Amino acid sequence: MVKLQVQRGDLRAVRGDLVFVPLPEGDVRAAVRRLDRRLATALARRLGAGAFRGRTDDLLVHHGERTTAFLGIGRAPVADDAWRRAGARARQEAERQRARRVAVYLGENGASREVLAAFGEGFLLAGYRFGRYLSNDDGQRCVERLAMVGETVAGTAALRPVVSALEAVVREVFRARDLVNEPASVKTPRFLAEQATALAVEIPGLEVEVWDAERIARENLAGLLAVARGSREEPRFIILRYAGAAAGPHVALVGKAITFDSGGLSLKPAKSMETMKYDMAGGAAVIGGVAAAARLGLPVRVTGYVPATENLPGGSAQKPGDVIRYRNGKTVEVL
After folding, report:
1. Residue 140, pLDDT score
2. d(Cα 61, Cα 51) in Å, to the nearest integer?
3. Contact 296, 165 (CB under 8 A)
4. Is the omega angle on the peptide bond into residue 299 within 30 degrees of 0, that is, cis?
């Protein structure tokens, strides 16, 4: 993961292969002049021609003594999501420029933890790439460091929780994306259960319980068993629990994890099956979400439920017209 740093300084002191300067919509020439008169002079013609106005889709790159990129962040006041999107656009441009050491000058906004967190989150998330099965990795990511520089920034002790929380969230988002992107032949229900169990060993306070097919039948989870009947892969029911200190409300998350959905006997068209390995994305999100809550030590009680199975057209698959009686006594006909 990219190394994050927070520093105090002005624009002239910022160092990096590529330096980003976010600017709001408005009189950008005056804004650049206040930051750096020499830079404003060099950019006078381009700014005067309206090449950059500070709109959210604006980007102006200047190659001088160093490479500086101005990012439009829209009209003030700038919402956190606009900062997040600016961070994502900065990462995309940094990779395009193949910059290793990247900096962003936030000016007075460097004093805001929310701005630091939003920009950093967008920057890190935009760098996600699933390359586990590539035969060559020539397109590997370049960025190694992001320095967020402000005229006034909080002390190291105050910023450490911000950076730690940001890294924890991004790590679990990447984990969920990795699970979604794995081939269906790899991410079987058993594989998901093993991944969740390993998390419980890694993260203090996280508990994971896995029910196998026998336990699922004993608990009468009839819907899960019915969907699983056509596959040789046994289903799993994964329960993740976390209870923070002085835990507040109890939050329950349920994520469907059909690791491959062919449609069963009502087979989907081939084109529609190309994305059916993604039918477990809800389960991946729940696994990542509960894990993130535990990493962050949130003052909340969370339980995640992930029913995992394949839906395939085997000889024992459920048939249209079958009736399933659920644990609560309700009956449902398969159409």
Report:
1. 67
2. 10
3. yes
4. no
- Assigned superfamily of 184-333: Zn peptidases (3.40.630.10)
* C-alpha 48: how far from chain center: 38
3-state SS class at 332? strand
Cβ atoms < 10 Å from Cβ of 65: 9
* Residue 324 in tokens: 């399933």
Read off the pLDDT of residues 288-314 as tens digits, 9 standing for 90 and up: 999 999 999 999 999 999 999 999 999
pLDDT at 145: 94
Give all strands of the β-sheet with 3-8 in edge-to-edge order.
3-8, 145-150, 101-107, 18-23, 67-72, 59-63
Q: Which amino acid is at 245?
A: A
Residue 139's pLDDT is what? 59
DSSP letters for 100-166: SEEEEEEEGGGG-HHHHHHHHHHHHHTT----TT-S--TT-----EEEEEESS---HHHHHHHHHHH
Contact of 209 with 242, CB cutoff 8 Å: no
Class of residue 30 by CB neighbours under 10 A (exposed 0-12, middle 13-18, buried 19+): exposed
Between CA 85 and CA 66 the distance in angstroms is 24
Q: Quick one: average pLDDT of 193-204? A: 97
Enumerate the domain spans of the chain.
3-154, 184-333
* Mean pLDDT to the nearest integer, 122-128: 96
| Rounded average pLDDT over 41-60 | 81
CATH number of 3-154: 3.40.220.10
> Among 189, 228, 213, which residue's Cα sits nearest to residue 316?
228
| C-alpha separations of 29 from 5, 14, 61, 70, 222 in Å | 29, 20, 15, 12, 66
Q: What is the C-alpha to C-alpha distance for residues 267 and 322, in angstroms, rounded to an integer? A: 16
In this prediction, residue 138 carries a pLDDT of 65
> Read out DSSP for 251-286?
EEEE--EEEEE--TTSPPPHHHHTTGGGGGHHHHHH
